[in-house]
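Entry type: protein chain
Record version: 2
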Amino acid sequence: MDYMRGMHDLLSRISSADIIVIGGSYAGLMATYEASRKGFKTILIEGEPCISPYIYYGGIWGYVVISKNLHDLLIKDLGLRMIKKVDEVYLVDSNEFYTKILAKIYDLGGYVLTGFFIEPYYNVDEEGNLELVGVLIRRSDENRMSNYMAIKARYIIDSSGLDASFSQYIIERIKPPIIPAGPGPIIPGSNEVFERTYWLVEENVVTAGLAAASVFGAAIPYPDVTPLILSGRRAVELIIESMEKVSERRTHEDKYIPGII
């Protein structure tokens, strides 16, 4: 009974979220950390059985380049030790970065699910339009529909890598007015990924990191992963801006109700 009660409590906790982040890339980890830090109930879902920099980019001999403008994140917030300042950048151990930021996510109450296949979860409204309401997940080695679990969320950040699998699924099914442009060449220090972090579905789905590079066309910045990290932060900023706009609109509508002076 205790086991069943525990499972019920767990499923209840992960059946809904404020923000779902898809993909444990540099952008995905940063988005999850930033959203959790700001008090959002956040769930990170990774399709692989573990979260590792080597799934996305482990760096050169295990080290990646990160700009000095992220000093506070690296030193004060995450407390990285395997770090070396070189000119205007830091060389950072990618494994330590992943380990420390994951630990912070757990400390902040974020949830991390690994080894799940992910699909959009949507409803069809009275006019026949598809409305995205969250994600469906199942274990990657299971194919039966009965094994799917629905997680509802108002906002989704797609950081699923260069294949941008979640965004591609939405483009095929929901058909937003977007034509995927494909990633550009590898350009060290390129800020295009950060600059093209944007909405795929307005006020619902944001593409970030390598998924943004794939959908909106951006040069990949390796070995400098700073634009990927900043992309995750920018994705959360876009969501907060959207929430503020909705709040302002509702306040305006409540204040000026027709027929009431």
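Comment: The two ends are 58 Å apart (CA to CA).
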